[in-house]
Amino acid sequence: MIHDLLANAGTYEKLHPDFPKAFAWLKAFDPSTPDGKYEIDGPGLTAGVQRYETKPDAEKKWEAHEMHGDIQVVFAGEEICGHTDVRTLIITEPYNPAKDVAKYAHPAGPPTRLRLQPGSFTIFLPQDGHQPGVQVGQATSVLKVVIKFRV
Fold first, then answer.
1. So what's the pLDDT on residue 109?
2. Are 38 and 50 within 8 A, CB to CB?
3. DSSP per residue over 24-36, as a string?
4. Cα–Cα distance between 146 and 15 in angstroms, integer?
5. CA 147, CA 44: separation in Å to the nearest integer?
6. Which pLDDT band holds residue 9 (cuts at 50, 70, 90)?
7. What are the chain's domains?
8. pLDDT tens for each residue of 86-143
9. Cα–Cα dist 116/16, whole Å
10. Average pLDDT of the chain?
11. DSSP code of residue 106
12. Contacts of 73 by beta carbon, 8 Å cutoff, 6+ apart
């Protein structure tokens, strides 16, 4: 997991061949873009634009992916995203290869809590169990982009 400011994205572009295209897309993102899935460079590098209300921790599931990593960027609002090693989680919904996701129960131990705010980004890899969309204090509207890249 990497959590940093979007202004520092250049530092990470050399870590994956798709990162320069992904971060260029994020830097040029227009917040009026409708919700949906957008190909950045074919089906292996996509952006999902989503608007939603954050929810209490108990209502948000944990997840992890096997084929893709995420670059998550909040453009409006803010949320908490939990993070922990996926090997410490108990599966509640087995891996679905069509959706590239497995769901997990809340961890027994305390997870890391990341605050996703406009101007920051977080990269999750397959070993990173994560719990997006948790409210900070009270529910709020969020505009988020999740870039999916093949690992």
1. 87
2. no
3. HHHHT--TTPPSE
4. 18
5. 10
6. very high
7. 2-150 (2.60.120.370)
8. 999 999 999 999 999 999 999 988 899 999 999 999 999 999 999 999 999 999 999 9
9. 22
10. 97
11. P
12. 6, 26, 29, 116, 120, 121, 122, 144, 145, 146, 147
